[in-house]
Design a protein that fits this description.
With 298 residues, the chain is an alpha+beta fold. Among the domains are: 106 residues, Ku70, Chain: A, Domain 2, CATH 2.40.290; 85 residues, no CATH class. The chain is built from seven helices and nine strands. The strands form two sheets. A seven-stranded mixed β-barrel has the order 1-2-6-9-8-7-5. It has a two-stranded antiparallel ribbon with strand order 3-4. Helix 4 packs parallel to helix 6 and helix 5 packs parallel to helix 7. The longest helix is centred in the C-terminal third of the chain and has 15 residues.
């Protein structure tokens, strides 16, 4: 079954238009999620908004947005006032220009979506745009109102379609200079630099996301499985600690430990973590248990 489009509209470049559909590229729905329960009854609990001073519950019709302008003082905004400030979406992804694909710094990249033709009639125009971008090694910079926010979007070719990546605004990106202000301006050289290069060379490999394992997610799946089966719970190993006193000695030890080993490559034998977690949790439920972990948070 084809996925459901998150948004449908028109990609426009001047007089050129192409109906497009936006699909989620990254999802967290496969992660194991827990409900909060009443320990005594086993019933799910629900969130409730209460007055911070009186402790009384506040129904939805009496709740308003507030922006704090001073300690304890707020400017209140009614729901209709907030709604009126949100720009209206005209369902148009308007291209404002083109730029080299590698020109945008990674810190500005936010969430990515797949962009595909909205219908069969849009396929020819879509392919023409995709191949034009690919041959020119260029990305399109566009803007649109998406999910009730004005967003700047970077559109790049990807396989048979396009990738639309939402960009962070400049005011949202914090200064790197502030984060690195305490890092001294010094350079590694001599044996220290040679050892560091050796360690990097012996661990050099290829990017293979199939070899990544979410150990926390896998541990949660095993925990749920053990609880359902009534088995004793395994305790996680304590992480080995200890401070490195001599940096050169640590580098020499690391180089000796990795010396002569082939370059590391991502192993295809390791299944994606979400599949491992999902399979483990389902396996537990299939063995006669009365419940299985739910994946939608409450």
């Amino acid at each position: 079954m084809a996925p459901r489009a998150q948004w449908k509209g028109v990609l426009r470049i001047g007089a050129f238009t192409c109906p497009v559909a936006l699909f989620t590229a990254v999802s967290t729905s496969e992660r194991i999620a827990f409900h909060t329960l009443n320990r005594a009854t086993g019933h799910r609990v629900r969130r409730e908004f209460v007055d911070s001073i009186t402790g009384d519950a506040v129904p939805a019709e009496d709740q308003v947005k507030g922006y704090e302008i001073a300690d304890g003082r707020h400017v209140t905004l009614e729901p209709e006032e907030v709604a009126a400030a949100v720009p209206e979406s005209d369902k148009t992804l308007d291209v404002t220009g083109f730029l080299p694909c590698d020109q945008v710094e990674e810190i500005y990249l936010d969430r990515s979506y797949y962009l595909a033709p909205a219908d069969a009639g849009a396929q020819a125009a879509f392919v023409a745009l995709r191949e034009g971008l690919r041959k020119a090694r260029t990305a399109a910079l566009a803007h649109a109102v998406l999910f009730r926010r004005f967003r700047v979007v970077l559109v790049r070719p990807q396989d048979e379609g396009l990738i639309a990546t939402l960009l962070n605004f400049d005011y949202e990106v914090r200064s790197a200079a502030d984060a690195f202000s305490d890092v001294p301006q010094m350079k590694a050289k001599g044996e220290m630099l040679d050892l560091a290069r050796h360690i990097i060379d012996t661990k050099r490999g290829r990017f293979d996301p199939a070899g990544f394992e979410d150990r926390y997610e896998a541990a949660l799946a095993e925990l749920v499985k053990a609880k359902q089966a009534g088995k004793p719970l395994k305790r996680a190993r304590a992480a080995s600690g200890g401070k490195v006193i001599d940096l050169m000695d640590a580098l020499r030890r690391s180089a000796k430990a990795t010396g002569g080993k082939p370059a590391a490559k991502g192993s295809r034998k390791a299944a994606p973590a979400r599949a491992k977690g999902k399979a483990a949790a389902k396996g537990a439920a299939a063995k006669g248990s009365t419940s299985k972990p739910r994946r939608k948070a409450g």
